[in-house]
Amino acid sequence: MTTLAIDNIGQLVTNDPSLGEGPLGIVRDAALVIDGNRIAAVESAGAQADARIDAAGRAVIPGFVDSHTHLVFAGDRADEFAARMAGERYAAGGIRVTTDATRAASTEELTQLTERRRREGIRAGITHVEIKSGYGLETDSEARSCEVAARFTDDVTFLGAHVVPAEYQDRPDDYVWLVTGDMLAACAPYSKWIDVFCEEGAFDAEQSRAVLEAGAAAGLGLRVHANQLGEGPGVQLAVEMGAASADHCTYLSDADIEALAGGDTVATFLPATDFSTREQYPDGRRAIDAGVSVALATNTNPGSSYTTSMSFCIALAVRDMRMTADEALQAATLGGARALRRDDIGHLSPGARADVAILDAPSHAHLVYRPGVPLIAATITAGELAWSDPDSRLGHSP
Amino acid sequence: MTTLAIDNIGQLVTNDPSLGEGPLGIVRDAALVIDGNRIAAVESAGAQADARIDAAGRAVIPGFVDSHTHLVFAGDRADEFAARMAGERYAAGGIRVTTDATRAASTEELTQLTERRRREGIRAGITHVEIKSGYGLETDSEARSCEVAARFTDDVTFLGAHVVPAEYQDRPDDYVWLVTGDMLAACAPYSKWIDVFCEEGAFDAEQSRAVLEAGAAAGLGLRVHANQLGEGPGVQLAVEMGAASADHCTYLSDADIEALAGGDTVATFLPATDFSTREQYPDGRRAIDAGVSVALATNTNPGSSYTTSMSFCIALAVRDMRMTADEALQAATLGGARALRRDDIGHLSPGARADVAILDAPSHAHLVYRPGVPLIAATITAGELAWSDPDSRLGHSP
């Protein structure tokens, strides 16, 4: 193994309070030493190593952990999006456009599309992703989506219960039977998680429970899409069943907040979705103040949030969810790791996976201070330099 | 002169209704032929030229015209920004931090900082900028800012009347006397425009009129910062005096709207500022429906809008100002040109300056559909390839 030092870091965010100042564990004038694919040490600037990147005073943060994405899909819904934004309520399209295109695409095409989106995310500083299926909605196509997703991450989520597909519109329980039966059996080998969209118009509490129970019985961890469009049973069901995460949480009742604060379920906010659907934003401040463990994720998908920019989500969280810049950064890194129940990522403690983003800025506050500006000078995934901005002129030796 | 064809354009936005469909003058499966620094022709895909860029189905738009920036400054106010976002009302700092740093910086340093920001803007598709002074607030320092700005654009704006500097706090009229006298004389040689911040806490209507009259007498065109924080006299003063643009326009009375609709003054909206200051957004829809000519600009500055992302401004305009994607794109291109009273930029008619952005997307709607994602595959300024994304793999021959 060769060692690599990222040296002359102006502000290093470790997310490890034992290593530095405050909850973000901030160290100034630091060097981060990487051994193979792991963090070896946090040292003072001027560290010795086999190779060296000169950060020249820049900020360095743990790579973003994007715990909620739908990267595997084909097709484009920009026209539907523009029509919705222009106020046309019944814009044509919807998820069926994506389902039809995803079913029709070749596996190679789906893989290339996913790879392209993953590349975009790496350039945006995302070093780990969860990826859901959910645009196949038939057994073979869902299994294929999970298989493609598994080429990019070990956090694959089977989301056959995304919506009831058109062909089952009049018999949703038959679709739940399929999801919990043959479809689950076909997808489980590629998946670590099962997810269900528990919302009016998708799956009700009883159906959602059936999906989660079947997933748990197959050895999968639980995740729930909940309370995106209004209050409902999703959040409390997630907590009750010990789900790792309840995602969206745009509308939370007092009882939802209380359940989340008392349970082991992370509330994962997806503010880019609320941006793109012109919904209200979730009240992140209220959740944090009540003791809820929170995460931020992009929800990359072609219908309601076609962004890979975690920085954009962080800026929205601060502007419109009343989170501080520190809280938003931690939610997008350590929070995402917690939502995936992982302790090897989301922080830069010795032994952690060497997933790092170098910012073209002197502090992480610039992620909010400079909205819309791509600030990732370099991204390192498991010790490998996966992206380096041509303009950043990071000194790299030898 | 050699000719260059951007070929195989999936969707070409010309902003010239005589060339294509609708107000955006959209042509599909097009080639854009450039001769030297000018647009030569819009043709069908497969055009002949000395050199060729294969857009491979991508969308191509006129480069963004950013008609309101403060690119010349030194210093960083991220901490003040983060504190304000965290709800600390009386966060330390303010414009004085920037003024002190700008006065103290060397001319070379100011030039490098401006160049870096300009480079960032070029990568964001901005092919033309207006640049204001306004962080010197003393004669030599203002003149130096105008001189530095003039290295990057012929649309330099003298903004000595940005705020009353600390040393004139008790005698603002003396400062107006300086601005309209020695300072104007020192700055006018580098400037095309004069601007004044007409707002409570900055300059009142009488002071603003004095500044604008002095500028006009010196041969400068007029611009006004108006109605950012509340209704006030700025917009109507701008229209009455024939200013090219009234900028901000966050709060507009019915009388303001009527004046703008009946005059020759463009309303320039700066929604990234309203984002970063947590103000309400201007009602773009209302202005457009009333017949007001509108522009979008970034207002890049270290205090209230430190972004160079016109795409971000476009996304905000659609999400929060009720503009359509078409209107927002046109406001950020042709609208900016109108706000600068130029007819050589902002559109792709034959004879226009060859300022072009190639999007890594099949349509301009993706600028809104994909918020936060850097979508500029290449930027061409006056016929020269100024930026090309390393991942976009644009075919370029020979």
**Estimated radius of gyration of chain A:** 21 Å
Largest interface: A-B, 44 and 44 residues
Number of domains of chain A: 2
Q: Compute the separation of the termini of chain A in Å.
A: 15 Å
The level of helicity of chain A is: 25-40%
Overall mean pLDDT of chain A stands at 96
Number of helices of chain A: 14
Question: Could you state the CATH homologous superfamily of the largest domain in chain A?
Answer: Metal-dependent hydrolases
The count of β-strands of chain A is 18
Query: What is the fold-level CATH name, i.e. the topology of the largest domain in chain A?
Result: TIM Barrel
Strand content of chain A: 15-25%
Provide the CATH architecture of the largest domain in chain A.
Answer: Alpha-Beta Barrel
Question: What oligomeric state best describes the polypeptide chains here?
Answer: homodimer
The largest β sheet of chain A comes out as: 9 strands, mixed
Structural class of chain A: alpha/beta
Instruction: List the uncertain runs of chain A.
Output: none
C-alpha geometry of chain A? globular
CATH class of the largest domain in chain A: Alpha Beta
